[in-house]
From TrEMBL, chain A:
Family per record: Belongs to the amidase family. GatA subfamily.
Molecular function per GO: ATP binding; glutaminyl-tRNA synthase (glutamine-hydrolyzing) activity; transferase activity
Reactions it catalyzes: L-glutamyl-tRNA(Gln) + L-glutamine + ATP + H2O = L-glutaminyl-tRNA(Gln) + L-glutamate + ADP + phosphate + H(+)
Gene: gatA
Stored SUPFAM superfamilies: Amidase signature (AS) enzymes
GO cellular component: glutamyl-tRNA(Gln) amidotransferase complex
Record protein name field: Glutamyl-tRNA(Gln) amidotransferase subunit A
Species per Swiss-Prot/TrEMBL record: Polymorphobacter multimanifer
UniProtKB/TrEMBL annotation, chain B:
Domain Asn/Gln amidotransferase: 336-492
Species whose genome carries this gene: Polymorphobacter multimanifer
Upper lineage: Bacteria, Pseudomonadati, Pseudomonadota, Alphaproteobacteria, Sphingomonadales
Keywords: ATP-binding, Ligase, Nucleotide-binding, Protein biosynthesis, Transferase
Catalysis: reaction(s): L-aspartyl-tRNA(Asn) + L-glutamine + ATP + H2O = L-asparaginyl-tRNA(Asn) + L-glutamate + ADP + phosphate + 2 H(+); L-glutamyl-tRNA(Gln) + L-glutamine + ATP + H2O = L-glutaminyl-tRNA(Gln) + L-glutamate + ADP + phosphate + H(+)
GO MF term list: ATP binding; glutaminyl-tRNA synthase (glutamine-hydrolyzing) activity; transferase activity
The gene coding this protein: gatB
Protein name, UniProt field: Aspartyl/glutamyl-tRNA(Asn/Gln) amidotransferase subunit B
UniProt family annotation: Belongs to the GatB/GatE family. GatB subfamily.
InterPro entries (UniProt xref): Asn/Gln-tRNA_amidoTrfase_suB/E (IPR017959), Asn/Gln-tRNA_Trfase_suB/E_cat (IPR006075), Asn/Gln_amidotransferase (IPR018027), Asn/Gln_tRNA_amidoTrase-B-like (IPR003789), GatB (IPR004413), GatB_C_1 (IPR042114), GatB_Yqey_C_2 (IPR023168), Gln-tRNA_amidoTrfase_suB_CS (IPR017958)
Matches recorded under Gene3D superfamilies: 1.10.10.410, GatB domain, N-terminal subdomain (1.10.150.380)
UniProtKB/TrEMBL annotation, chain C:
Keyword ATP-binding: yes
Reactions catalysed according to its record: L-glutamyl-tRNA(Gln) + L-glutamine + ATP + H2O = L-glutaminyl-tRNA(Gln) + L-glutamate + ADP + phosphate + H(+); L-aspartyl-tRNA(Asn) + L-glutamine + ATP + H2O = L-asparaginyl-tRNA(Asn) + L-glutamate + ADP + phosphate + 2 H(+)
Family assignment from sequence similarity: Belongs to the GatC family.
Originating organism: Polymorphobacter multimanifer
Record keywords, A-Z: ATP-binding, Ligase, Nucleotide-binding, Protein biosynthesis, Transferase
Name recorded for this polypeptide: Aspartyl/glutamyl-tRNA(Asn/Gln) amidotransferase subunit C
Stated role: Allows the formation of correctly charged Asn-tRNA(Asn) or Gln-tRNA(Gln) through the transamidation of misacylated Asp-tRNA(Asn) or Glu-tRNA(Gln) in organisms which lack either or both of asparaginyl-tRNA or glutaminyl-tRNA synthetases. The reaction takes place in the presence of glutamine and ATP through an activated phospho-Asp-tRNA(Asn) or phospho-Glu-tRNA(Gln).
């Protein structure tokens, strides 16, 4: 077995026992990256930096001063600003942008001894569910459907993270999740990913998409792997006023799959008409597994579920339209200046050339819903509906401790399969409501579709109950015994 | 006092509202830890937050909240227990985020009022609609390069209070008095230094005209006017322009204008015209500002005595004239100097403060201000302290020196920085109050001027002044004049 | 809500995104479809419901007023497409 096939947790053990060095581990991943460039998972590879960090990790490991992730090779989604390493958010408009600062979350991972292999591709500005909108080109899933050679999407927006972790190019990766961007790609490629409670991870230094929704989180191959990363990533940051000033548990040490006394809610509104029968079946299986772990199932109602997606597609574009106003060609990134043009001409040309189609579409929608005469009908109404959605969850959590749902309504699809933006947006139907409510939620791979593609289930918890979410995730993981691996590696 | 524009078709009344932008006195910016000082090298007082680098987030400066609340309290305004920061979205080269963080829907301070006094002695209350906190923009410099404007973000993100008046102002004079009174109040509170030259205070001037009693006309907004004089001028020329426009058959367009101090006219700012949809929405990076009663009480407790109350006290309790009360309350520093001098003088002379206040006030208004003006200094940099001045005035009060000698001593104090008593002693200026010595001197003067003594005694009493002068001269100017008078009268009476 | 061509141009102008004539009609159709879909929110009774103000309620945190940042002009200008004499440079603005 190759070193890259180890779980992050097993790598920790192996490194601690000096069975292999951090440099060897990193080199194995760099080799895998080099052999899998066709996946286009990385926007930037940083092998020299990685080996230097691995060398430092080896020294720390030898001297007993190693951090919790010493020597663990990770990929960093290219939405996290990394000091001295180009950060583009997969947008032409940020081409050549080299941050003079390190995001809080990537900084915490590095401080824990992690090795950065490179920056991971994504949908442009994290806007997308298929990784087809990246200016750096689409990311390809390492998976193939049975009997088909069609290239499949890895999901989005953290598609590079998903593809890299699934293809064993990285032990784990950072993702960000605004409406499902960690959970849906994790489900599409058969890995695990958790979006913690809004405010657990600092947003400082993460290129903003929709500020009231954006949350960083880990993506890795097991629940325990995610728990190790999550502990390192969370924590109060005085530079982010919305980050929560609460102690961070050692999630991995406290992992517990014993669900006795826990009630698992099944939201009836998530039983969509025409839900893929394989997914419906896995959902039932998941509930049975959790019951076997001691939990008691209850049916709950989240009556405003159907309004979550439309509310999200008002709030997120509105915030994005404002957050992306700073990309104007003045202080960083690309500038397009028509000969003899005015400042306004420069803005329009720069932004026309710098932003891709989906980003422009969302900026336009966001601009529209905030504009005079429409603000109350669209934005304020959406924020009120958001309150109702959060109340739905509060009410549900009075009768249950955790919710179990599918992560996505389908398995990974082929490139170009969803050309209608609305069709694409519907992919987030199960992940968006918990994003709007700021709740912790994770996707765990539990099985394969009829054509052999991974499917995930989602656990949603009360605010700050990452530990409960991880525990139920572990129970699912153990019962499902998901061991399938992608076939499409070079 | 109504102010009328006499048009060709009759009289027009003007309606003015002012939006004053006052930079909050704080070490660092509203949402970043960069410095706020004036006049630094370009882009040196800029953090990555101020430059709106990707992923940067605002963190609110507590001092700016405190100063806005104190200002609101000083204006007798409602303090909103919950206020919210909104984003005002527009593109401009000196607006790095592409939005200004401001407060539209829920400002930190609600309604209040400011009393102004006009030249005819009448007073008027001008309503305050609201005060909100917001970020200042950067600065564009247009004249350093033929094809480029240069952007300096030093000012970007500095905290401003926007103080919005009701449209209660009816004349250029009222506009000027309002801004002057507001500036005075802010300086008392310490929430803004009021340095209009450095842009710490500037006003957007909203002007419309109407027939008496008619509904409000269409208003124009003249941006960023930065002196009391210019504000008054902008009101006047804009009102007259509008009247001429309407009477010429035109209509006033709601627009943004610029006041040109060089020509004393306003002109349309077309560059701002197409950006009128600001798409305000609550800033998701910031939490609502929630204020407790305790917090507001604590802010109130730190307010100084405000100008109106202080002026009333000076007149009513200390018996100062209106003029002196105005002069001494114009600046908080004047009042502080005066009060320190009065207190010290009372202590040194053992007389009640109320008795010494007038002496102190008169001396400041005549001697100190005169000297400061000559030296080109202001009261904060005065070369003497209130206590040193009290030492001087106490010497006058107890008869050690005369008022005339006091002037000489004060000059010496300004030059040498030494204490009044020391100077008096060193120069031998102590007033002689020994009747024996005075009698000796008088005897000498009378002997030497026997003819004049005879004339005096013969009825030419106007000569009395001559004897006083000669005696004082004989005593080197140091004799107590009252004693000279008394003894001369006795001795001349023979 | 059906978005017409004029509205598309106005929104693009507000957002400072240059669009070609050929882009207008397709954008109008896409925006109309998306806005038509989100308009189902109008059917939700939100009387008396406050808009969400903070996702995770917490007490606000304020900074002490101290100079802790700035004086980093090189970092501020490092990525500028055009910087001259310590300033960012943009096409000349006529006010």
């Amino acid at each position: 077995m190759s070193l890259t096939d180890l779980t992050l947790s097993a790598m920790r053990t192996g490194l601690a026992a000096r069975e292999f060095s951090a440099c060897e581990l990193t080199q194995a991943h760099l080799d895998a990256m080099a052999a899998n460039r066709h996946l286009n998972a990385f926007t930037v590879e940083t092998p020299e930096l990685a080996l230097a960090q691995a060398g430092a990790a080896d020294v720390a490991l030898a001297s007993g001063s190693a951090g919790s992730l010493a020597g663990i090779p990770l990929g960093i989604k290219d939405l996290f600003c990394t000091k001295g390493v180009e950060t583009t958010a997969a947008s032409r408009i940020l081409e050549g942008f080299v941050p003079q600062y390190e995001s809080t979350v990537s900084g915490k991972l590095l401080a824990a001894g992690a090795v950065m292999l490179g920056k991971l591709n994504l949908d442009e500005f994290a806007m997308g569910s298929s990784n087809e909108t990246s200016a750096a080109g689409r990311v390809i899933s390492p998976w193939k459907a049975i009997g088909s050679d069609a290239e499949l999407v890895p999901g989005g927006s953290s598609g590079g993270s998903a593809s890299a972790v699934s293809a064993r190019l990285a032990a784990g990766a950072t993702g960000t999740d605004t409406g499902g961007s960690i959970r849906q790609p994790a489900a599409f490629v058969g890995i695990t990913g958790i979006k913690p409670t809004y405010g657990r991870c600092s947003r400082w230094g993460v290129v903003a998409f929709a500020s009231s929704l954006d949350q960083a989180g880990p993506m890795a191959r097991t629940v325990e792997d995610c728990a190790h990363m999550l502990t390192a990533m969370c924590g109060h940051d005085p530079k982010d006023t919305t980050s929560l000033d609460l102690p961070v548990p050692d999630f991995a040490a406290l992992l517990n799959a014993d669900l006795r006394g826990k009630k698992i809610g099944i939201p009836k509104e998530y039983r969509l008409d025409g839900l893929d029968p394989t997914i419906a079946k896995l959902w039932d299986d998941g509930l049975a597994w959790l019951r076997a772990a001691g939990a008691e199932p209850v049916e709950v109602s989240l009556p405003h579920t159907k309004y979550a997606l439309p509310a999200y597609y008002i709030i997120a574009p509105a915030e994005a339209s404002s957050n992306l106003a700073r990309y104007d060609g003045v202080r960083f990134g690309q500038r397009v200046m028509p000969e003899g043009g005015s400042l306004a001409d420069m803005y329009e040309a720069t932004r026309a050339a710098g932003f891709g189609k989906e980003v422009k579409r969302r900026i336009m929608i966001g601009t529209y819903v905030l504009s005079a005469g429409f603000y109350d009908a669209y934005f304020t109404q959406a924020q009120k509906v958001r309150t109702l959605i959060a109340r739905d969850f509060e009410a549900a959590f009075e009768v249950c401790d955790l919710l179990l749902t599918p992560t996505a309504p389908s398995a990974a699809f082929a490139f170009g399969a969803k050309v209608d933006p609305l069709d694409m947006y519907l992919n987030d139907v199960f992940t968006v409501p918990s994003s709007l409510a700021g709740l912790p939620a994770m996707s765990v791979p539990v099985g394969l579709s009829a054509d052999g593609l991974p499917l995930g289930l989602q656990i949603i918890g009360r605010p700050l109950d990452e530990q409960g979410v991880l525990g139920a995730g572990l129970a699912l993981e153990r019962a499902a015994g998901f061991t399938a691996k992608p076939e499409k590696r070079a | 006092m109504s102010w009328i524009v006499k048009g060709e078709t009759g009289d027009w009344e003007i309606v003015v509202g002012l939006e004053v932008h006052a930079q909050v006195t704080a070490e660092s910016k509203l949402f970043s830890g960069a410095a706020t000082g004036f006049g630094a090298e370009p882009n040196t007082q800029v953090s990555l937050v101020d430059a709106a680098m990707p992923g940067m987030l605002p963190v609110l400066n507590a001092e700016c909240v405190r100063q806005a609340v104190r200002t609101g309290l000083a204006l007798g305004a409602e303090i909103n227990r919950v206020s919210v920061f909104d984003r005002k979205n527009y593109f401009y080269a000196d607006l790095p985020q592409g939005y200004q963080i401001s407060q539209l829907y829920h400002p930190i301070v609600g309604e209040g009022a400011l009393d102004i006094t006009l030249s005819d002695g009448t007073t008027k209350s001008i309503g305050i609609e609201r005060i909100h906190l917001e970020q200042d923009a950067g600065k564009s410099v247009h004249d350093l390069h033929p094809a480029r404007s240069f952007v300096d973000l030093n000012r970007s993100g500095c905290a401003l209070m926007e103080i919005v008046s009701r449209p209660d102002i009816r004349s250029p004079e009222e506009a000027g008095a309002y801004v002057a009174a507001l500036r005075q109040l802010l300086r008392y509170v310490g929430s803004c230094d009021g340095n209009m030259d450095e842009g710490s205070m500037r006003a957007d001037v909203n002007v419309s005209v109407r027939r008496a009693g008619a509904p409000f006309g269409t208003r124009t907004e003249t941006k960023n006017v930065n002196s009391v004089r210019f504000i008054m001028a902008a009101v006047e020329v804009e009102a007259k322009r509008q009247v001429a426009l309407i009477e010429g058959g035109g209509t006033v367009v709601q627009e943004t204008r610029l006041f040109d101090p060089g020509t004393g006219t306003t002109r349309s700012m077309r560059s701002k015209e197409d950006a009128h949809d600001y798409r305000y929405f609550p800033d998701p990076d910031l939490l609502p500002v929630e204020l407790t009663e305790d917090y507001i009480d604590a802010c109130r407790a730190t307010l100084p005595e405000l100008p109106v109350a202080k002026r009333r006290r000076y007149v009513e309790a200390l018996g100062l004239t209106d003029y002196l009360a105005d002069v001494l309350t114009a600046e908080k520093a004047n009042a502080a100097w005066f009060e320190a001098l009065s207190a010290s003088l009372a202590t040194r002379s053992g007389k009640p403060e109320a008795d010494m206040a007038k002496t102190a006030a008169n001396w400041i208004a005549s001697e100190l201000f005169g000297a400061l003006k000559r030296l080109g200094k202001d009261i904060d940099t005065a070369p003497v302290t209130p206590d040193a001045a009290a030492e001087l005035l106490a010497l006058v009060a107890d008869g050690t020196i005369s008022n005339t000698v006091a002037k000489t001593v004060f000059e010496a104090m300004l030059e040498t920085g030494e204490g009044a008593a020391a100077i008096v002693d060193a120069k031998g200026l102590r007033q002689v109050s020994d009747t024996g010595a005075i009698d000796d001197a008088i005897a000498g003067v009378l002997d030497a001027n026997a003819d004049k003594v005879a004339q005096y005694r013969g009825g030419k009493e106007a000569l009395f002044g001559f004897f006083v002068g000669q005696t004082m001269k004989a005593m080197g100017g140091k004799a107590n004049p009252a004693l000279i008078n008394e003894r001369l009268k006795a001795l001349l009476a023979g | 809500m059906s978005v017409d061509d004029t509205t598309v141009r106005r929104i693009a102008r507000l957002a400072r995104i240059g669009i070609t004539d050929a882009e207008v009609a397709p954008l109008a159709a896409e925006l109309s479809a998306i806005l038509g879909w989100v308009e189902q929110l109008a059917e939700v009774d939100t009387r008396g419901v406050p808009p969400m103000a903070a996702v995770m309620p917490k007490r606000h945190e304020w900074r002490d007023d101290a100079v802790t940042d700035g004086n980093v002009r090189e970092a501020v200008l490092a990525n500028a497409p055009e910087a001259l004499s310590g300033f960012f440079a943009v096409p000349k603005v006529i006010e």
